[in-house]
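Pipeline run #58 for the internal structure catalog. This entry was flagged by the ingest filter as a single-chain record with no existing model, so it goes straight to prediction. Upstream metadata was stripped on purpose; only the residue string is passed forward. Reviewer on rotation: M.T. Logging verbosity set to normal.
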Amino acid sequence: MGSANVGRRQLLLVSALGTAASTALGTTSAFGQSFPDSGFGPLRRIKAGDLEVAYAEAGPASGMPVLLLHGWPYDIHTYVDVAPRLAAAGHRVIVPYLRGYGATRFLSVSTPRNGQQAALAADAIALIDALGLERPIVAGCDWGARAACILAALWPERCRGLVSVSGYLIGSQELNRAPLPPRAELQWWYQYYFMTERGEAGYRKYTHEFARLIWQLASPRWEFSEATFRRSADALDNQDHVAISVHNYRWRLGLAPGEMRFDDLERRLASLPFIITPTITLEGDANGAPHPDPTGYARRFTGKYQHRFVTGGIGHNLPQEAPDVFANAVIDVAKS
């Protein structure tokens, strides 16, 4: 990319984010919370943009960086078996809790608890800056895949490669206004539930029960254990989780406003920008969650691109259900 384009993107980022603080804070939070062992080892924390981000890290500090982004209603344990595979291959692996999950916290009580797609992508860019990651591979599932796609689309000079479960997930409020066939709308039942005060109250009261149901519907052949579920469900007890989850789905349908500082980014995303970054997309054969047809999004990837269809009863949470497949995709993209 030309220097003018890089400068313009940097200016847009500054206007959207402000200056990202990049001071690592040790092992005890400014909020007085100690972080338990997560299955990755003790979590680390750093100020980045609007957040104090709690994240797991694995692999050599000098390794090619990989940023792994989880989705809803999951957490960093989506990658608990992926991270060691990538670390063994020599990668520096960063796995953050998204806003509203786990031990990640907002730095200010006045920051809107915003779940729109640009806010989540901005968080990821702020973390990349705070950690000084040099052109990481960005990879994700669900909300994390959408954020990873946005990074690769809007800041290709910042990303070495992309791995995305369910492909091209960048959207717009305008596109979301179009009605779907009834059977397709049925898959989005929880989105409409969240449009109501009853839905928000229900999710707040039954967060873990709700998450369990989503896990079962989205991955009908994944026989996860109670311990596996509990380990991730604890991350949903974050004080901002419900507000961010509800806002995400209300914003998608235009029933909740976004933040003005992200308006320009959303306008660019609404054009469905092409992705030139080397990419591998993945889809499981038993994904019970709403997801696009790979033939419909393949043309959005104009760089080196491959789609991999994963068999064996693999559902929506593909990295946790098929960690070898996901890790191999990251390793292969790294060679591009």
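catalog note: Confidence is low (pLDDT under 50) at residues 1-37.
catalog note: The chain has 15 helices and nine strands.
status: ready for reviewer M.T.
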